[in-house]
Structures are given as C-alpha cells and as structure tokens.
Input
Amino acid sequence: MSTLAPGAVLGILGGGQLGRMLALAAFRLGLRVHVFAQAANEPAVQVTDRATLAPFDDQRALDAFAASVDVVTLEFENVPVASVRHLAERVPVRPGADLLAIAQDRLAEKRFARSIGLETAPFAAYDGGADGSNLAELSFPCRVKTRRLGYDGKGQIRVSNRAEVAAAFAALGGVPCIVESEVAFRRELSVLVARRPSGAVAVFPLAENRHADGILRESFAPAAASPDLVAQAETLALAVARGVELAGLLAIELFETLDGRLLINEFAPRPHNSGHWTLDGCSVDQFEQAVRAVCDWPLTPARALAPCRMINLLGDDVDAWPAWLAKPSARLHLYGKEEARSGRKMGHVTLVGDDA
Ligand code: AMP
Output
C-alpha cells in the first residue's frame, strides 16, 4: 500500500461516540470517513456522509466497505474477529485481528500480560466443568467475570468464597469465565499508547479514574504520580505495544497497588473514555493520535497542557448542559444520542485548569 495522504478514506468499525470523535479528528486532517454501523442515528454516522448500515458479519457489506476505504480502524471491541480477518485480507486493519482477539477475552488478556512479564491480579479460568481445584490458589473475595462481552461492570459478580463461584457462574449464564482475586488497590489508572506500523511509539500521561457501579465517572489527568510510577507506566505501555505489535492506539487499564506496583486490568485497542481529557488539555488528543498511528503518519509527543478533570454525563446528567455551557472553565462534549437511558454515556465535560 502506498503512503496514505489527506483525501484518503478512513473506515471506522462502529458508530458510537468514540467513532464520532475519531471521525471529527480525521476530517480535521483532511481525510474522508466511512463508518460501518447499524443505525442512521448513531453518533458517528451523524457526522459522516458515508455510512454502511449492516450487521458486522454481513460479508457482502464488508466487501463493499473494504473496497471503498484505504485503511480501517475500530471504535468498538466486539466486532467479530472473523469479520476483521475478512477485511484484513482486502485492506489494512489497524489495530489488527490478533490484538482484537486478545482484547475480547479477559483470560487471553491476562495470560498475554503475564507472558511478557507484567503483573495482573491472581486469576484462574473457570468453565463450570472442572472441580474448581484451580481456584485453590486464589484469595477471596473474588470477581467472577465472563471472559467475553463484559463492559461497564456488566458481566461480573463479586463472591466472598469458593463455594459461591458455581452459583455466580450460573447467574452469568454458564458461559466461560475468569475468576479474579479482588485487588485492594490504591487507585485505578490508565495509560494510552500509540504506535505506528513502522514502530514509532508515543505514550500519553497517566489518568486517574474513579468508577461507580463499574462505570467510569471521572478521570483526573495528568494523574499525580511520582517519577518512578510514571516511568513504570511508560515501560509497561511500551512493552505491551511492542508485544502486540500495535498499529494504532491502545488503552491499558491499571490498578495501582498499595505498595506502588501497577497491575494490568484490561486492554482496549481503541480510544478510551479515560482519554477524553486529551481533547481539551493535551498537546495532541487521543483521537488525532489514533488517526496518525493508523495512517502511519508521524506521531506527536503527548504532553499535558493543564490539569484536567473529565466528568462523564450519564443518563439524565446531560440535562445540566446549559449549566456546563455557562461555566467558563468547562468544555462540553455531547454525543448526539437521542435517548438518555440510565447509565448511558450521553456526553462529557472537561474542567480545565484551576477548577479541575
Ligand atoms: P472491569 O470491567 O474488569 O474493568 O471491572 C470494572 C470495575 O470493577 C473496575 O474498574 C474496578 O473498579 C472493579 N474491579 C474489577 N476487577 C477487580 C479486581 N480484581 N479487584 C478490584 N476491583 C476490581
């Protein structure tokens, strides 16, 4: 493939808010955008003039999509890996199918992290069939999590002893699970790393993330952190990016232990909610950096310009939009979603500077 130039067409798998913000960044750099989504009112479809509305496993739609774009990226993790492999035979897909396969499976993710020498919470696979003897090493309480399709705290149950695991497994639908010891963490952090296919990498400043009911509520960035912790996070991000031969952007969710170690929680091969602050407080935002990486264009160093506090607007929170608009230090981002269902990510606000 020749080098991509402005005017080329970026294909985005998924039509959500991450796709919308990716598309806007791509347009800013002179690209065209073709979104593969399911419905005309999805956030990313609203901002593009080219959209395919079809299921992700519709092979004819995938073929036509591949023929109309120069490179493909994704904003949504649960695209079938087989569809991505199908596309990748026709057009470059970045990040690629192998990384997606890891990121879709919590067990593969943790095994991969261990295989490159990184730490995770103690874990064991559980599919109900075995006698559970592989759980003997785990300290309780634990989280029983479905290996696939969990998000925002869904698909997981907390258990206080080994005897409760089987019931949790059944309540989760009897699908393959991972059982993970609960970590007494100091806080949750995340780091974003971009890598070009040709190998150059750029790591973003750490964000500190606060969740409620498994959903991200707020991120603070750059996270207050010692130089040693920052160096640890960078080393880890580079190890993951090289280990998976990343082409594009990858988010890594971390637990900081009470004694200052970083444990890998999960990966997302796409822009991440905890990186939204970069739109307003960083020398480059995560969406632009993702576009640069996917196009194999030069990356730019990601430096925080001001302290930021990103607040997710979930469900009815969005009704406060006039008040956020009236606040000088607040930058409001709305995703164009019609229905403010409870817990749904409708938009976010970034407070920049002293108010953060
Ligand atoms: P996850 O979907 O795995 O990211 O889990 C959602 C949230 O649940 C995390 O952001 C943590 O707040 C919490 N959580 C998940 N796994 C663990 C664990 N092993 N120990 C402590 N908290 C956890």
Observations:
- Residues 227-243 form the longest helix (17 residues).
- The chain has ten helices and 17 strands.
- The chain has three domains: 9-93, 122-181, 185-355.
- Residues 121, 143, 150, 153, 180, 182-183, 188, 211, 214, 253, 265-266 surround adenosine monophosphate (CB under 6 Å).
